[in-house]
Design a protein that fits this description.
- The structure is a single chain.
- Helix 2 packs across helix 7 and helix 5 crosses helix 6.
- The chain folds into 2 domains: 142 residues, VC0802-like (2-Layer Sandwich), CATH 3.30.2130; 168 residues, 3-Layer(aba) Sandwich (Rossmann fold).
- It contains 10 helices and 14 strands.
- It has a 7-stranded mixed sheet with strand order 2-3-1-4-7-6-5. It has a 7-stranded mixed sheet with strand order 10-9-8-11-12-14-13, with helices on one face.
- It is elongated.
- It is 28% helix and 25% strand.
- With 369 residues, the protein is α/β, with parallel strands linked by helices.
């Protein structure tokens, strides 16, 4: 049956697999009391205000899907009837084109494209240049769920990362690494393999209390029943940005990567808060401000011939950290858990992730005093 519009919305908060527990923590901070995790997402109920706030403030999420219909069908005739019962106008203002993403499994209606075609028959074609509203349809064992995307562009697209270096890390994953490392945003931070600067920029945004979605638009703002007053209360309730920021240092041996990182930091409005340096890991020096955290995504290699070089590189990170960062927290993202012992024995496995189809592990610990 089609679900009626109300001040409470059942949602699926989509996130990178492995970050579900962190998303639950973020939702709890918004006052959400009941959640259910599944691989790659968290289901919960949100008020309209919480829906707006979650889109703006969740650092680890990818998008927020609002459930609008559920039904069981085994024929295309029944599917078309159910499609026509949904109040699409609640989410589609004039001039906006519906777009569907369909996945089915173990259902009589198993052909994704054929199912998508039945949904599209409910709409007149708008201009090919029109903006789009995404709907997500999932069918399993003949039971279908229809959701509307409230986010628009993926939430990890903050609006500032345009310059890329090698193997860029998604902003949502970077935010998750910072949380899992238990870095205190009032203490110093360093990333010695900064690439395009994602970790350092996310650290600066968090240290200053700026919401990740402060510079972007959201799909829900196009909905006919969008509540400007509720949205205004969300944006004005934000805590005042912190003026005192700890030392945040980002280094890389590649000058081109530092150029990209600085350009991204400029767009994010935090360039003046980050000390960017062209430097190899061997030249790492203790930042000002006392102990903090080193969190980094070092090179992964990927070739058998590179394994020895990686061992040496990771051992250098461990040796320099032991010398320069006594008592500092440590978080490092690895594609090979066995290499963690090259940095420091006894690191803990804090996160298991899937990044670009490859398993990765986020290992945490502390440099000795």
């Amino acid at each position: 049956m089609a679900e009626s519009r109300s001040s409470s919305h059942e949602v699926l908060v989509v996130c990178p697999p492995g970050l579900e527990a962190l998303v639950v923590g973020e939702l709890t901070d918004l006052g959400v009391k009941h959640t259910r995790s599944e691989k790659g997402g968290v289901t919960c109920s949100l008020t309209t205000r919480q829906l707006y706030a979650a889109n703006r403030s969740l650092r680890c999420a990818t998008r927020i899907l609002v459930r609008i219909a559920r039904f069981t069908v085994r024929s295309f005739a029944d599917l078309e009837r159910r499609v026509n019962e949904i109040e699409w106008d609640d989410y589609l203002p004039a001039g906006v084109q519906a777009r569907f993403r369909v996945t089915t499994r173990r259902s009589k209606l198993w052909h994704d494209k054929a199912v998508e075609e039945r949904f599209m028959r409910a709409f007149k074609l708008v201009s090919p240049h029109a903006s789009e509203q995404l709907f997500v349809v999932r069918g399993s064992h003949d039971r279908f769920t229809v959701s509307v995307d409230s986010s628009g562009a993926p939430l990890h697209e903050r609006g500032w990362r345009q310059a890329l270096a090698k193997a860029p890390l998604r902003e949502s994953v970077a935010a998750g690494l910072l949380m899992a490392s238990e870095w205190d945003p009032t203490t110093s931070f360093i990333d010695p393999f900064c690439g395009s600067g994602t970790l350092a920029i996310e650290a600066a945004l968090r240290a200053t209390g700026q919401p990740p979605g402060g510079q972007r638009q959201f799909a829900f703002k196009q909905w006919p029943d969008f509540q400007p007053g509720t949205w205004a209360s969300v944006t004005t309730a934000q805590a005042e940005p912190t003026s005192s920021v700890p030392a945040i240092v980002a280094t890389d041996r590649d000058a081109g990567a530092i150029d990209a990182a600085q350009a991204n930091a400029e767009r994010a409005g935090v360039a003046e808060l980050i000390d960017f340096r062209v430097a190899p890991i061997a030249d790492l020096q203790t930042p000002e401000g006392g102990p903090g955290h080193l969190v980094t995504n070092p090179p992964w290699g990927g070739r058998v011939s590179a394994e020895r070089d990686l061992r040496n590189l990771y051992a250098t990170l461990g040796n320099v950290g032991k010398k320069e960062l006594s008592g500092w927290g440590l978080g490092v993202l690895l594609a090979d858990r066995d290499l963690a012992r090259q940095i420091r024995p006894g690191l803990n496995e804090s996160l298991t992730l899937e990044l670009g189809g490859q398993h990765a592990w986020f290992m945490t610990g502390k440099f000795p005093n």
